[in-house]
Automatic annotation (TrEMBL):
This is 3-deoxy-D-arabinoheptulosonate-7-phosphate synthase. GO terms for molecular function: aldehyde-lyase activity; transferase activity. One of its GO terms (biological process) is aromatic amino acid family biosynthetic process. Residues 20-253 form the DAHP synthetase I/KDSA domain. It comes from Gallaecimonas pentaromativorans. Keywords: Transferase. The chain holds residues 72 to 333 of 337 of the full protein.
Amino acid sequence: VARELHPHDTQVPLGNTQIGGERFVVIAGPCSVESREQLMAVSKMVKANGAVAIRGGAYKPRTSPYAFQGLGVEGLKLLKEVNQELGIPTVSEVISPEDAEMMAGYVDMLQIGARNMYNYRLLEAVGKTGKPVMLKRGLSATIEEFLLAAEYILAQGNPNVVLCERGIRTFETATRNTLDLNAVALLKQKTHLPVVVDPSHGTGIRELVIPLSRAAAAVGADGIIVESHMNPKEALSDGHQALTQDLFEQLMRELKPFVAAA
Ligand code: PEP
Ligand code: MN
């Protein structure tokens, strides 16, 4: 993944678009797929405002085993429906190597969550599918470990990896995580892979998502992946960090100079 070996930016295909290169992209959607109505409504809203892909978890690696764990295959089927009805690609997290091939039939990009960045069998499994992969940085992973995790996927012959900085664990407890913008700038120098930022998990606070999205664009990220919900109070996960329709519209207005840089 070293830039010395491949000086040109990798462009990872995603549906009719790509991540990396000139255009700053916004991927958006709910933390979890909760129902057809919920997913369809928020997907239509973010697409209408310029999102290039829909995110939504069907398998949720929750901190508590008693929290909502996701709809599983039902959720994947709903993501497929969104893809077919709205013509927009989808991204969803895979948490088990046995599911990788199956999930590749339902979604356009496989997400490796922060908790699984060190799950090397899972990295190999998504590598083997050949599907584009969104690799999230582990909660306490160094940049070197992050890049080596990406190597596991590339070593299987899959070059389509997008790195995602989603905040790291620090002494600070006022925010959910500490978004490491240093890492974004450094990664852009060290690797040819696209780098996106997740300001939702990076801050855990809805009101901070727009400022940190602007920061992501300013520091040179290739895009952001943000959580959004039509009714965050009712969300089954991460409602406190989900952008409402109003805030999502504001986000896209504020990012216009970057998104338009195509
Ligand atoms: C998510 O994207 O919903 C998620 C669980 O993120 P992370 O793995 O970064 O915590
Ligand atoms: Mn979430």
